Amino acid sequence: MAEPHLIGEAMTGGYGRGADILQGCTLSVDKGQIAVIVGPNGAGKSTAMKAVFGMLNLRSGSVRIGGEDITHLSPQDRVAKGMAFVPQTSNIFPSMTVEENLEMGAFLRRDDIRPTIEQVYDLFPILRDKRRQAAGELSGGQRQQVAVGRALMTQPSVLMLDEPTAGVSPIVMDELFDRIIEVARAGITILMVEQNARQALEIADKGYVLVQGCNAYTGTGAELMADDEVRRTFLGG
Amino acid sequence: MTDILNAIVALSNFVLIPGAAYGAQLALGALGVTLIYGILRFSNFAHGDTMAFGTMATILVTWGLQSMGVSFGFLPTALIALPVGIAITGLLLLGTDRAVYRFYRKQKAAPVVLVIVSIGVMFVMNGLVRFIIGVGDVNFADGARFVINARQFREMTGLDEGLAIRSTTLITLITAAIAVALLFWFLNKTRTGKSMRAFSDNEDLALLSGINPERVVAVTWLIIAALATTAGVLYGLDKSFKAFTYFQLLLPIFAAAIVGGLGNPLGAIAGGFVIAFSEVLVTYAWKKVLEYLLPENLEPSSLVQLLSTDYKFAVSFAILIIVLLFKPTGLFKGQSV
Amino acid sequence: ESHMGPVKIGIILGFTGPLESITPDMAGGAELAINEVNESGAFMDGTQIEAVRADSTCIDSAAATAAAERLVTNDGVAGIMGADCSGVTGAILQNVARANGVVMISPSATSPALSEAEDDGMFFRTAPSDARQGEIMSQVIMDRGISEVALTYTNNDYGKGLADSFQKAFEADGGTVTISAAHEDGKADYSAEVASLASAGGEVLVVAGYTDQGGKGIIQASLDSGAFDTFVLPDGMIGQQIVDDLGSGLDGSFGQLPGSDSEGSAIFQEMATEAGINPTGIYTGESYDAAALMILAMAKAGSTSAADYAGEIMDIANAPGEQILPGELAKALELIEAGEEIDYVGATAVELIEPGESAGTFKEIEIKDGAIETVGFR
Amino acid sequence: MITVENLHRHFGGFHAVDGASLKIETGSITGLIGPNGAGKTTLFNVIAGRLPPTSGRVTMDGEDITGLPPHALFHKGLLRTFQIAHEFSSMTVRENLMMVPEGQHGETLWNAWFGRGKIAAQERELAKKADEVLEFLTISHLADERAGNLSGGQKKLLELGRTMMVDAKIVFLDEVGAGVNRTLLNTIGDAIVRLNKERGYTFCVIEHDMDFIGRLCDPVIVMAEGKVLAQGSADSIMKNEAVIEAYLGTGLKNKTVGETA
Amino acid sequence: MTARGYLLYAGMALLIVLTGFVQGWNLALTILNMGLISAIMSLGVNLQWGFAGLFNVGVMGFVALGGLAAVLVSMPPVAEGWNAGGLRLLGALALGAAILVAAVQVWKRKIGGRMRALVMLALLIGGFFLFRASLDPAVNAIEAINPSLSGYLGGLGLPIIIAWPVGGLLAAGAAWIIGKAALGLRSDYLAIATLGIAEIVIAVLKNEDWLSRGVKNVVGLPRPVPYEVDLQRDPGFVEAAAGYGLDPVTASTLWVKILYSGLFAVVLIAILFLAQRALASPWGRMMRAIRDNEVAAAAMGKNVTARHLQVFILGSAVCGIAGAMMTTLDGQLTPGSYQPLRFTFLVWVMVIVGGSGNNYGAVLGGFLIWWLWVMVEPLGLWAMELITSGMSPDSWLRGHLTDSAAQMRLMTMGIILLAVLRFSPKGLMPER
Ligand SMILES: Nc1ncnc2c1ncn2[C@@H]1O[C@H](COP(=O)(O)OP(=O)(O)OP(=O)(O)O)[C@@H](O)[C@H]1O
Ligand SMILES: Nc1ncnc2c1ncn2[C@@H]1O[C@H](COP(=O)(O)OP(=O)(O)OP(=O)(O)O)[C@@H](O)[C@H]1O
Ligand SMILES: [Mg+2]
Ligand SMILES: [Mg+2]
């Protein structure tokens, strides 16, 4: 089998001079597939995402995309390589309008971004109504939609989402998962962290359970769902 | 009738026009302060001295031009030298950023640390300016000083009161208007401008959007250089250049930026005029105007002055505080760190 | 008593701060006197004198005190030429000079309050108290047939003191002061002050300020708006620079400053120009005289100890004795050596009255065609 | 009992809460659901004194509490958590908890200066209590960590933990579940029930996880566009057409990528 | 304190001792005394900023109020002044206060919006003229009395030490009024408001001659310690000095300064002790919580406004005490010398360089920055001499450089400041 499109291999590292949060954690996703990371709070899921995106200095391990080693690229350069990331917290530009937030997502694009903006508005209709409003004045769920919309604006080849559905109402969440599937079908690699694990694993091609910075379980989404132990301890029964 | 005209002319000559001139000068300075606050998120105490440095650079170039016999007709020669002055100041600011501010940015230091750091930079720049051009008064204005002066006006209209309009006043007003319009357009409509606002909002996320922070910072400093130098030169043309005065300008400039709402360019302009007019108006002695307007027997014997000029500075600050009490983030909604 | 090293004299002036633009020339003036003595080699068997500068900041009494303290305890100065601003001068006098028993001669602290300060006989000044200048200024104006003036002063002890004494004298002489408005130095804009002054009206505007500070700003704004076109300029406002800067605008303005028709001031002007010091700079002559007085008093007492020479200063400054002009310090030292009386006249016709301050002769000037012309003495 | 009468809160021309009226019965665990932007958080903010209402009235056990400042409401036993975590970031996790209880002896300056003995005893108790709460939230190991360094979910736990430090009458929980691991959320649910049963806390819970709502809450209030859309038992709400239309949706339209790929 | 802290304090002590050896003990003690006062000011600001996150840039105003207290407490009363219009003046002031209170009461009434504003405005404007009409004649009468030497009401003629707590109270009172009005403002807005209020305080001090002679200054304040000249005349003292091998002049100047140091040190230690206790208590924890997140602290039952007011008053009072002490040390009140750069920003530099949130850091910052402030002057001169030493004596550049040597003072200060902050951006002794 060829190497997966995105791979973060044996990543070890932490914040500043503190202890290692990640301890040899490995994540990989094939092109056009969805990988979902679940795990208890503080397991290092967000840290792993940041590591893949180069926002953390790894002590060892590597990150590769399409076979190319990008371990030492800055986050900016990774954006240029077609990666997009929605962080878990502070993931919008609060004083800019919704529309400007989306435009910033497309900062590196030189083509016409109107159609993409329209697509995002179609996906999250509420944002169309609020396009002229400062994003910081939105409700929690609306912000989350802006954050995901911003990442989609990049038209990335790799999309990384850290708990995109936190605080989002069920109907929007369903829309969002639908859209994620669609995006994946268009050939985009998706890596996401989810606490709504059951819904997420349902659409996942691959699932990781992370515990204390290590891979505890790995399998297809269905396999993990089927595993009693995993269900009980991580997915809430 | 002529009495009414005289009263109007006196009021314009001593209150409206000087207030507008000073207001525009403060506004230009406040634009710079507010921009740094808006994008780089700290109150830059070195701004007054940046203005002084820019002005000094321009003066040196002006002298060079004058010695070569270049002049700009009825406009001051300094305006030709201005672009060079801006360029030199830009280099200085970029250098300062590299040598000083960048470190704290990387550290994600608290804004107040940057404020203190900017005080350090202020000391150094201050020393630099005094060192190069000295501490004395430098007069570098040439060209025509007046569009119309008081005597000409009196002769022209036959009124008792004169009205003087200085060319620098006009230039300053026009420049301030253009600067704020440009800045507004730049920040709200251009890609680079928006990326600067994005950077100020959420630095990490800007990074994730592919915005190059160093570029944003560099562009900001260059704009600051242009604003500060222009403000400084126009002020210097109108009054004169002296390092100490430029340092003193900092306080009213900050007041203007804050009363208008920190981080808001329109606010900076409004704030400049509020501060300037409050200084002039509250301490104005209405005696003369009333003498024109009231019948002989009602004429005031006293000065009809609300407060003596001793308190002019206090008054402008009092107004500032009152504005803040009713609008806690300034006239135009400003940001707060 | 013979000395091993050079004798040190402290020059403490506001090299930074609001007066920073006039202090270099003042220090230059004092050093001119010191150099003159050193070149003559006639001071105490060829003992050299060394000037040590320190910064009074003009405004920060604590920093000024610390600087003076250092001059006295570390550099071991035998006397202090300074300070400049009345506020810091008072602080240094009380905290350093009196405590350590060191003589201070200020060339420019003119506050009337200093006349009354406790000084243990250690404090002198070569500039007259403002109380005197106010009376002179009133006469100067009255003599020109002007009876209604507007008055603005810089808001410090100098400006306020001068304005008060002038207003009192002028009203006693039958004149009217339409308004007496303070202005702060170093501010960015003086439209508000000018607006009030113009509204109050008056034939001329009396500006008790500084040439390169608010005073200039006021005059400039008055000229710009046509509020006044004749100005009365006391000592702080007179300097070639402001005349050059304001061009023909100042023509016809007049004023007075401490000075005499003695040849002294002319000679000093020449000497200063030669040494690269702006001779018309305010208090430059007073600084020369302050330093010279101190040195001559030391010579007379044959000691650099304040306790010994403080008492000689009045004697040196006043008649009887041979008159000493600037540039004649060598001669003066020789006369002292020979045990003869001298009367130091110096650059500003020094005449000290009790309690150790200048009696004050004043020079009346008028500005004509961009030049400061002396029109008489009072 | 909290009653909200015809409450309005406008932002400029936008009516975030637009005439909502509802009751939270003493002793209940009331669920508050609704689409994003329905005005739930705004409603909480108004009740808890963080935002002044544009108009309307809030009463607590018959007493008018409209517009009282948050700290006064806290003293009345009304607590709330924040949707976007508001931790005290430079303080340790334990300190975050210890600061909560009111009327601490050492909170007046005089005692802080001259009443050391009493403070020490009280502090020991507080620390013990805090450690118990941390234990319960499974983050004991983080007791001495700076709260700013916690993970997103851990911060939410800390939010909840603060309400457990005192004996509250009524607790408003704004999406405690978002970002919290589902297994842990179940435990939290159990705790809420226990606090409700054993200590008589009243709860009002905003949550988008319908399992959680269904398991815990009765009644459930649905808000939409600033108004109350429906109210009733969890079951009846989940069958309510209008609620399904506005909020719940009909589930995933496409099942998995795998099916078609 | 950490090991690093002890080391830094030892270093600071060493600097002062070295200054004593190299430049003389008088200078070293002068620096020490102002250092003690600076440390107190710095503690006051740290109380507000480090504990509670209040950005007070009005330090100068509170320091000046302390100075005013020194005059009002210690100078002898001027009987002529009181006779001329003292009581009338007090009456006018009371009237002014009453008008303000009335206006505030009107504002607090919950009645109709426009009407309320109009009534308040009318009250204020009418009241202002009434106030001026009753105040001005009294002021003129008082100021007319021998203006060049007195022209004011004088003080109470009490020992000047009493002025220290009184200065604290005066500053606290002002802080209470200011805090009531301005503490709702956020960060930089509060900053500029306090900056403005400080300017207003100075403007009042400069222009209200009846109060403290305005810019004409009050000199010759009484001292809490003996005068040097008196000591020099005291045979017992001269003898004791001789015992140490000192001449009476040196001994007396040193002794006076040591006495001051003792007094100041007592105050500093007391305040430091209290501040330290407060910081380490639940009170301090509550303040830190408020600083970190006001919204959450309020939701956790802490009365943020009241606590802010409390700490604002406390910090300002400490600055006021320091101000009174400083004026005592100076022996005079010179309102013109109050400049924000020196009395506000320099104090802020002390706090930040020392380490905000850390009392020991603030104290260290106070000493260090003050030492530098005094020492950069000679340092700048030495640097210039060093630079120019290689140049030919009559070159233009050399002349220019030596002439500008004094300008090096601020520059050196700036460079050192930047260097220190570079070396430890969280201050020399970080909070934790
Ligand atoms: N400060 C504000 N300025 C303007 N509009 C605001 C402000 N705060 C909230 N809103 C608007 O009010 C509406 C209600 O917001 P609220 O936060 O109450 O929603 P919510 O029901 O809590 O939603 P969610 O489930 O997404 O958290 C939203 O449309 C939001 O955009
Ligand atoms: N900036 C930081 N500095 C130091 N430690 C941190 C920082 N951010 C997170 N940590 C620690 O790293 C560990 C893992 O955090 P991370 O955010 O990766 O968890 P997570 O798996 O995403 O949890 P959650 O589901 O709650 O979001 C936590 O114990 C947390 O305390
Ligand atoms: Mg996470
Ligand atoms: Mg919400």
From TrEMBL, chain A:
Keywords: Amino-acid transport, ATP-binding, Nucleotide-binding, Transport. InterPro entries: AAA+_ATPase, ABC_transporter-like_ATP-bd, BCAA_Transport_ATP-bd_LivF, P-loop_NTPase. GO terms for molecular function: ATP binding; ATP hydrolysis activity; branched-chain amino acid transmembrane transporter activity. Residues 6-237 form the ABC transporter domain. It comes from the Bacteria. Gene3D superfamilies: P-loop containing nucleotide triphosphate hydrolases. Signal peptide: none annotated. The lineage of its organism: Bacteria, Pseudomonadati, Pseudomonadota, Alphaproteobacteria, Rhodobacterales. This is Amino acid/amide ABC transporter ATP-binding protein 2 (HAAT family). Belongs to the ABC transporter superfamily. One of its GO terms (biological process) is L-amino acid transport.
Automatic annotation (TrEMBL), chain B:
Its main location: membrane. One of its GO terms (molecular function) is L-phenylalanine transmembrane transporter activity. It is found in: Cell membrane. GO terms for cellular component: plasma membrane. The chain crosses the membrane at residues 20-40, 52-74, 80-100, 112-133, 163-187, 216-237, 306-326. The keyword Transmembrane helix applies. It comes from the Bacteria. InterPro entries: ABC_transp_permease (IPR001851), BCAA_transport_permease (IPR052157). This is Amino acid/amide ABC transporter membrane protein 1 (HAAT family). CDD domains: TM_PBP1_LivH_like. It comes from Limimaricola soesokkakensis. Keywords: Amino-acid transport, Cell inner membrane, Cell membrane, Membrane, Transmembrane, Transmembrane helix, Transport. The lineage of its organism: Bacteria, Pseudomonadati, Pseudomonadota, Alphaproteobacteria, Rhodobacterales. Belongs to the binding-protein-dependent transport system permease family. LivHM subfamily. Pfam families: BPD_transp_2. It is a multi-pass membrane protein. GO terms for biological process: D-alanine transmembrane transport; L-alanine transport; L-isoleucine import across plasma membrane. The keyword Cell inner membrane applies.
From TrEMBL, chain D:
Residues 2-250 form the ABC transporter domain. It comes from the Bacteria. The keyword rRNA-binding does not apply. Its EC number is 3.6.3.-. One of its GO terms (molecular function) is ATP hydrolysis activity. SMART domains: AAA. Keywords: ATP-binding, Hydrolase, Nucleotide-binding, Transport. Transmembrane segments: none annotated. Pfam families: ABC_tran, BCA_ABC_TP_C. Gene3D superfamilies: P-loop containing nucleotide triphosphate hydrolases. GO terms for cellular component: plasma membrane. InterPro entries: AAA+_ATPase, ABC_AA/LPS_Transport, ABC_transporter-like_ATP-bd, ABC_transporter-like_CS, BCA_ABC_TP_C, P-loop_NTPase. This is Amino acid/amide ABC transporter ATP-binding protein 1 (HAAT family). It comes from Limimaricola soesokkakensis.
UniProtKB/TrEMBL annotation, chain E:
It is found in: Cell membrane. The keyword Transmembrane applies. The chain crosses the membrane at residues 7-25, 31-47, 54-75, 87-106, 118-135, 155-177, 189-205, 258-279, 309-329, 341-360, 367-384, 404-423. One of its GO terms (cellular component) is plasma membrane. It is a multi-pass membrane protein. GO terms for molecular function: branched-chain amino acid transmembrane transporter activity. InterPro entries: ABC_transp_permease, LivM-like. Keywords: Cell membrane, Membrane, Transmembrane, Transmembrane helix. Its main location: membrane. The keyword Transmembrane applies. Pfam families: BPD_transp_2. PANTHER family: HIGH-AFFINITY BRANCHED-CHAIN AMINO ACID TRANSPORT PROTEIN BRAE (PTHR30482:SF10), HIGH-AFFINITY BRANCHED-CHAIN AMINO ACID TRANSPORT SYSTEM PERMEASE (PTHR30482). This is Amino acid/amide ABC transporter membrane protein 2 (HAAT family).
